[in-house]
Amino acid sequence: MLQQEAQTENVQEARTQVKLTRKQNFLQGFKYLLFSASAGIIQAASFTLLNETIHWDYWPSYLIALTLSVVYNFTVNRKFTFKSAKNVPLAMTQIFLYYLVFTPLSTWWGEALTQAGWNEYIVLFGTMVINLITEFSVYRFIVFRKHMYTNKEGQAELAKQLDQNE
After folding, report:
1. 92 occurs within a structural domain
2. Do 111 and 58 touch, CB atoms closer than 8 A?
3. For each of the chain's 166 residues, which pLDDT tens digit applies?
4. Does the predicted TM-score (pTM) go above 0.90?
5. How many domains does the chain have?
6. What phi and psi, each to the nearest 5 degrees, are found at residue 67?
């Protein structure tokens, strides 16, 4: 019983100061890349549907496609990449603040570049790469910085790691 209490205390302590191993950092980046690529497929497919079928302009097609991919990407990365149990409304608000800056800027440059004759899909792909890099940084260093490995799966992984280190 005493050992179990000490282990629970160690897990609680690790919750606030998770130091990822080299392998965990690599896996986190790899998972983020894979989930973001799947979000990119959602974004590209919905953009293509709106742009080619309905023949909407770049900006409304882009905004709807971006919204769909953001909701999906947030959901899967929160659970599987960062393994976070952080308050969802708070985390979503922080991501919303990121997109409050990114969305107008990316819509503006996307519209400007397509009006200047650039291909919509080249602009979309370039914007998605910029989004991939900047959004990962926001998730990793702001939104989930102190809340990684706090969900059930993350806590189990930390406990297993602590057991191996003892």
Report:
1. yes
2. yes
3. 444 444 444 445 444 567 888 988 999 999 999 999 999 999 999 999 999 999 999 899 999 999 999 999 999 999 999 999 999 999 999 999 999 999 999 999 999 999 999 999 999 999 999 999 999 999 999 999 999 999 999 999 888 887 877 6
4. no
5. 1
6. -60, -45
